[in-house]
Design a protein that fits this description.
Blueprint: E1 10-11, E2 18-19, H1 24-29, E3 35-37, E4 43-52, E5 71-81, H2 86-103, E6 108-112, E7 124-132, E8 137-146, H3 150-155, E9 158-160, E10 166-168, E11 170-178, H4 181-190, E12 197-198, H5 204-207, E13 211-212
Parallel strand pairs: 3-9
Antiparallel strand pairs: 1-2, 4-5, 5-11, 6-7, 7-8, 8-11, 9-10, 12-13
Length: 214
């Protein structure tokens, strides 16, 4: 898990507990100190949780409002797999994230992050940024990371190979959707001149209408 300033977590006073910044924390610890059979891999999970972040050091006009908040809800994807398949499943998570934003009809771009922006855990990371008309530039809405065996070593999670030998699993994560930034991108990209908001077609059967009027 992230450590030091990178963690951005709230600690509970007089307790050895904290508020999770992502469901990744819970999903990563699900198989702590276990040895998983190779035939059971990959293990694929999705967690839906409230998330809490200090966001310390986040300043500027784009850090205000809904874009950078201290509490939000999101759906997080998580995969345990063999080292040989982690690159494949990293692309799989990215494809699922792209499918969501394509379905919503939002303009977006994919960035592969440089080494200096990876943080301690990730060996490779992609960010998806949606176009934000209100700020006139792209803003991050989701990401996916291949942490290889970094988390597995910390949590002692291994898999038993067919030859009987044990090896650390690879662990990957990616946000499916978060309830702060994605609605912001929808509102800004689908707002009309009269102030109303056209609902993306894929959401209309749940919303029961085509437009939200103010």
């Amino acid at each position: 898990m992230p450590k030091g300033n990178e963690a951005q977590t709230y600690a509970i006073e007089d307790e050895d507990l904290g508020l999770i910044a992502t469901a990744e924390v819970t999903l990563a610890g699900k198989h702590a100190d276990e040895v998983i059979s190779e035939k059971d891999l990959p293990l694929k999970y999705i967690g839906y949780s409230h998330c809490f972040r200090k966001e310390a050091g986040a300043y500027g006009k784009y850090s205000k409002g809904m874009y950078r908040v201290h509490q939000f809800t999101k759906a997080e994807m998580f995969i345990y797999c063999t080292p040989e398949e982690s690159d494949k499943y990293h692309q799989h998570i990215l494809e699922m994230e792209e499918k969501i934003y394509q379905g919503l009809g939002l303009p977006y771009r994919v960035l592969e992050m440089c080494t200096g922006d990876l943080g301690a855990m990730a060996a490779r990371k992609y960010d998806i940024e949606a176009w934000m008309p209100g700020r006139g530039e792209y803003g991050e809405v989701t990401s996916t990371s291949n942490c290889t065996d970094y988390q597995a070593r910390n949590l002692n999670i291994k898999f038993k190979k067919k030859d009987g030998k044990s090896e650390f699993v690879h662990m990957l994560n990616g946000t499916a959707i978060a309830t702060s930034r994605t609605p912001l991108a929808i509102l800004e990209n689908y707002q009309n001149e009269d102030g109303s908001v056209t609902i993306p077609e894929v959401l209309r059967k749940w919303m029961g209408k085509e437009k939200i009027s103010i």
